[in-house]
User: Fold these one by one.
Assistant:
Number 1:
Amino acid sequence: MKRILSISLIILFPSLISAAASLHSPSPTPTPWPPQFHSILFMNNTKGTLQIIDLWYDWPNRRNFNIIQNQLGKKLYDLEWGNGTSYYYTLDANKECRTMLFPVGILPPEWLAGAEYLGQEIKDGFLCNVWTKVDFIWYYEDVETKRPVYWAFFTGMVAHVMTFEVGKVLDDPNWQAPVYCFEQSAKEEASDSNSNSPFALRSLMVNSYSS
């Protein structure tokens, strides 16, 4: 009997040590964004509006670019600069452009610092660590690769991360807003009643970083 008990303890000992260690290990923290990356996002909101966003993030140059294709609709270019200026424009014959002013620039790589860890969950087929930041965004990160998988906003809008290319950079000429953006008489302060609009979400994301 003693021999059986000893063998059982030997078998169980590593599991007990692992369980005890997990009780005292700190909660995971979100991986900071790489300084530069390219990502394709599939977006859906509570109204069923679908979008594909071609996202270019370039922190060293303090710029961010979202090319937003609405389902069977308009393609919107959302060009953001670190000085708080953003241009929302089309490249079609209508030559639409809206210039917005934000109190701060683009999100830094560590914008999720201080997020609350919620545990692990399967999302889109990936085992993810999950965090929330000031009840604004729920952020899912692949446990194995540390790549973002899924974002959910308090508005009901969700983003499925389809690709994530670290170090991919958009050529400089593509970062120039069209000339008609500079022919506008005045810039607008960043505000909008539609909480799913790109400029409203950007304002909220920046505010969540500073909280």
Number 2:
Amino acid sequence: MQYQWAEDDFDEPYGAVRLGASEPRSGNRYVMYHGTTRQNAEAIRLTGFRQSAGGMLGRGVYLSRDLEKASRYPIDHLESDRVVIKVVVNVGKVIVINRQGHPRQKTWHDSRYGEVFDTAWVPPGCGMVKSGLEENCVWDPSQIQIIKTIKPRPVHPPRPVQPEYDGWPLAFLGTAALLVVSLIFGRN
């Protein structure tokens, strides 16, 4: 079965900015998305986000401004078990991590290595993520406000049109029966 992840509304919370191709600007608030399982989404709804133990950018909460990207997670789960949490994030101070091996890739939030940042941003198409889509890692979960969850909607293929002959389904009549009906009733 196929699913779609379309949102049912586009009203943005006051002061929040929707997806753009540009770098998130320090101090702004952005709509972002976090993909997870139904069970984890319920736990997050009840207790809030927690930092992951690690990842490409180290500890933090991984989000994207791209709904398509978030809807792919967790990768090893059926799509029907996935949920995307729509949030607003105050990104605070942002650092761009645009290549593997970046000197601050996992230390962007640690004052022992220089300036402290609140969010690390991986730009789309920089080669760090297999999907080529952007990614954000937010250090402090309290900077994230949950708006709602988005569940996949099953996409039902359109029902095929049943060909008919004079109101009778052709599948019922078959070719031989159609010939008999047309001979008896004189219809072509």
Number 3:
Amino acid sequence: MADDLPNMLILQNKALQQYIYETSAYPKEHNLLKELREATVEKYKALSVMTLTVDEAQLLSMLVKMMNAKKTMEIGVFTGYSLLTTALALPEDGKILAIDPDKEAYELGLPYIKKAGIEHKINFIPSDAFPVLNDLINSGEEGTFDFIFVDAMKNDYLRFHELTIKLVKIGGTIAYDNTLWSGSVAQPEDEVKNEILRPFRNAVVEFNSFIAADPRIESTIVSIGDGLTLCRRLY
């Protein structure tokens, strides 16, 4: 399976992508983020493409700071690169609710989180996200999150959206990763041959169309990493 993994970067010019990394991204990457990124590649090899790219992580960090976010959520954690990124960007009293059923992957990143001194900001729940989100809504947490980052199963994005739109505050932001799905969204369905991309391509296309027409938000797709959709709740 790992051998079939596509290049999950929208920018297909490798020299230009490397220029962005070396000129802007790598020089500003926190040392612990670099160590975690390298540890993820060492353990997961080709599957490490599930980690956020360095430039996309830095964009999220800037967004969190510009929003003055304090209460955030992450759905889909993997080894915690994006989680550590967000935690470092939050103020000392900031909090992240992190949800992922894969505790083993999270534990790879935990030593780096502890070394950064930000473990107190993170509440990691090893669980499927849907029961957690429903419990939050039922317990009165609607409209209380400043920022929510979603990087999970793409065929669940529409279901996630109907829950996250309730939990994020008016004026808050939801970010969905991989919404250009290695460029396959712009290809005719029958031309998508990759066995990793093909099963989820239609779900991503459907999600993008829904988001574009959703009157509850203003949104944009940023062509960074594998595509990042930013949604700001209007009401």
